[in-house]
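This is your field. Have a critical look at the following sequence-structure pair:

***
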Amino acid sequence: MTELPSVKNKVFVDSNVLIYGHDKDAGAKHVTANKILRELWDSETGVLSMQVLQEFYTVVTRKIGTPLPKSIARVFVEEYATWWIETTPIEISSAFRIEDIAKISFWDALIVAAAVKSGAKEILSEDMNAGQVIAGVRIVNPFASLP
C-alpha cells in the first residue's frame, strides 16, 4: 500500500512576528518569534504577503531600537520572498467583504484575504484578535503566554 504524502498546514506570518524575529532588543518576543520562524523554514509552511514584507523592511531599518543595516534587511526580504503569496484585485475585493463582515481594518482584512488565498489555517499575529476565526482562518497570538 502506498503511503499518501502528508499535507503541510500553511501558517501566515504577520509583520509583527517577522519583525520580532529580527529585533534582538525585543527580549522574550525575539526568542519566541525566532523559534517560530526557524520551525516554519524547516517545515516549509510559512507564507506572507507583499504588505508584510514592505512593513518588515520599513520597521527593521527605521523603527526598532537597533535598526538593521538596509543591506542586511534586504537580504532577509529576499529570503522571505520565497514565502510570498501574491495579492491581486480579487484579494482586495475579498478584503472589502472581510473588513465589513469582521469589523476589522482594511489592512488586517487584506492579511486575512492573503492567508485565505494561500490556504493557511492560521495567522500568527500580535495585532489581531487572538482566537477569532475570520473567513475560516484562526488568529493566533504566539506571544500571549509571555510575561
